Amino acid sequence: MDSLTRYRPSRSLRNLQEEVNRVFDSLFSPAMDEDGQSGAVWTPRLDLTETEDGFQLAVDLPGMKKDDVHIRMEDDRLIISGERTEEKKEEDRNRVRMERSFGSFYRSLRLPKGIKDDQIRAHFRNGVLKVDLPKTEVSTPKRIEIE
Question: What is the pTM for the complete model shown?
């Protein structure tokens, strides 16, 4: 027996979790553009983290410019949409493999109550969109000391 295949349950579970996340994203994030029309082609990956003062969202949008991305708040939902256009195809080259996604995208996140809508800030740098979502004073957790 020259080669031995090892079963790694953590790898299988991680792959399963990624696939379940992808399916739920496609089911519960409607593929709609700003006019409510269907048409999302790809889904950018994102991270949402919470601090005492608020939330920070980071969205990977490689190859895009800030003018290609649109952000809005609507009914406690942060909606990010846009379109990534394909680079000009050169006539004298044949594609061997194409894995990058192009076209429109749409992400919608329901945010908890207590976000200061008027103080949301967004920054775009090196293909990463970062959105700072500050909490209101009421929603900021208070630490209670035990006496």
Answer: 0.63
Contact 46, 134 (CB under 8 A): no
| Residue 71 confidence (pLDDT) above 90 | yes
Q: Quick one: DSSP state of residue 68?
A: G
Walk me through the domains of the chain, giving residue ranges and CATH numbers.
12-86+102-134 (2.60.40.790)
Please provide the average confidence, as pLDDT, over all residues in the chain.
Answer: 79
Q: Which H/E stretch holds residue 57? A: strand 54-60
Q: Judge contact between 72 and 120, C-beta under 8 A.
A: no
From the list 93, 90, 80, the residue with the least C-alpha distance to 130 is 80
* C-alpha triplet 43, 85, 25: angle, nearest 5°: 5
What's the confidence (pLDDT) of residue 25? 58
Pair 113, 140: CB distance under 8 Å: no
Question: Which letter does DSSP use for residue 135 in this model?
Answer: B
Q: How many CA atoms lie within 13 A of 129 on its CB side?
A: 26
